[in-house]
Design a protein that fits this description.
There is one protein chain. With 261 residues, the protein is mainly β. It contains two helices and 15 strands. The radius of gyration is 19 Å and the shape is globular.
Length: 261
């Protein structure tokens, strides 16, 4: 694992030594509060981060939450059998995050895809139905380029993003307490002023719905969602996006036999 490297850096890897102790997923993703790759065919979505915030499909139609082809390997589809997200309640709810103290500066990112428009789709949320507290995002009923961003309280800020309908878009939401910088595919779209700072309200974090799975269900997919503390720079967000979207970013040469060292 490398925290950073410059363009043009050559990386040499030696392998084949039986005495080498392999790393673990938590070694690689330990800087994240949570990292979900959605490589499973169905059921639990395992967290590769250090906290083990595994996700469980919940709701009346939880059986619809299964693996599909994604941007990186397999993704998770969240929708039901129609573009009416109000009818088929399902969402991916994380294991106990009630004690997760994010504070006001944190970042959440992931790929999102809308199969069809017909509702106020939730993407990532730490909100609860009937409560005005909590942060999260939702799409407009009939225009999925209109993203509503919540900090704390019941008021949101509108941000225009590229449409998610029938295409994958990598969204990054970087909160700093007073605003949320919204990025699409690594490029800053808008620094949205928040009506209120995000709060650690104790509600579970959910993908594709709210924590109680009682609101509009995302009719679509999500992939490679990550949660971390801190507020990244624009360059860091751009680099993060490139590592997953630019097929030419990395190249490899043929392996060469060598004596063990």
């Amino acid at each position: 694992r490398m925290n950073s490297c410059a363009a043009g850096t050559s990386i040499h890897m030696n392998y084949g030594n039986a005495d080498f102790e392999p790393g673990t997923a938590s070694d690689t993703w330990g800087d994240y509060l949570g990292a979900w790759h959605f490589g499973e065919a169905s059921g639990t979505a395992y967290d590769s981060g250090k906290n083990g915030y595994h996700g469980t499909p919940k709701g009346a139609r939880a059986e619809y939450n299964v693996g599909v082809d994604g941007v990186i390997g397999r993704a998770r589809t969240n929708g039901g059998n129609a573009a009416n997200g109000e009818g088929d309640k399902v969402g991916m709810v994380l294991d106990d995050t009630s004690y997760l103290l994010l504070g006001e500066r944190f970042t959440v990112s992931g790929f999102f895809y809308v199969k069809g428009r017909a509702g106020w789709y939730r993407l990532v949320s730490r909100r609860w139905s009937g409560s005005s507290d909590g942060w999260g995002t939702e799409l407009n009923w009939d225009d999925d380029s209109m993203l509503y961003v919540y900090g704390g309280g019941g008021d949101s800020t509108l941000v225009r993003i590229p449409t998610l309908e029938k295409q994958w878009v990598y969204l990054t939401l970087a909160y700093d307490g007073k605003s949320c910088s919204v990025y699409a595919n690594g490029q800053l779209v808008q620094k949205a002023e928040l009506k209120a700072a995000p709060t650690d309200n104790g509600h579970p974090i959910a993908f594709g719905n709210q924590g109680d799975v009682a609101e509009w269900t995302l009719f679509g997919h999500y992939d490679e969602i990550r949660l971390s503390t801190g507020y990244p720079t624009e360059a860091e967000v751009a680099a993060d996006s490139l590592t997953m979207t630019d097929a030419d970013l990395f190249s490899a040469s043929a392996a060469q036999a060598a004596e063990p060292t």
